[in-house]
Prior knowledge:
Blueprint: H1 2-18, H2 26-44, H3 51-63, E1 65-67, H4 68-75, H5 79-91, E2 95-99, E3 107-111, H6 113-122, H7 125-133, H8 137-160, H9 169-173
Antiparallel strand pairs: 1-3, 2-3
Helix pairs in contact: 2-7
Amino acid sequence: MAAREDATTSGRDAGGEMLRLDRQICFPLYAATNLMQRLYRPLLAPLGLTYSQYLVMMLLWERKSAHVGELRDCLHLDAGTITPLLKRMERVGLVTRRRERDDERRVQIALTPRGAALRRRAERIPATLAAQINADPDELASLRGLTTSLVDRLRRIALIDPPERFSSPETRRA
């Protein structure tokens, strides 16, 4: 009986170990994201941008315009997040929103001249942030590659396996 108790106890300990915060992949990514956004805040304040708006602007500086769905997909945001974000950006004159004539459900987002002009002021931000982090360029490239790979894997899972698949029958009935 003692051997069975030891196996059961060690099984519980192993399970408990897996629930330790320092054993999770998600936590250092979460913490890094929060800390990165904190570092970006004073760099973006003179431009009048939040971090989320900065991400939208970077995509639009690359593409000049994009549909809301494209922005949502690239930034991994849901409609309830991207729509108010774009409306705020339109109100301050950074972007325009225009419904497609062929399909009014599709909304095209384009830079205004004011939004396009912010690019010059933003060009120094990546180098400034890299200097603050004080990381080797090869290390940053490796980190970017690893996190991009993880994002790709997570995205495939999220698209293939909707969250309902992972919920319990009790949760689904509630």
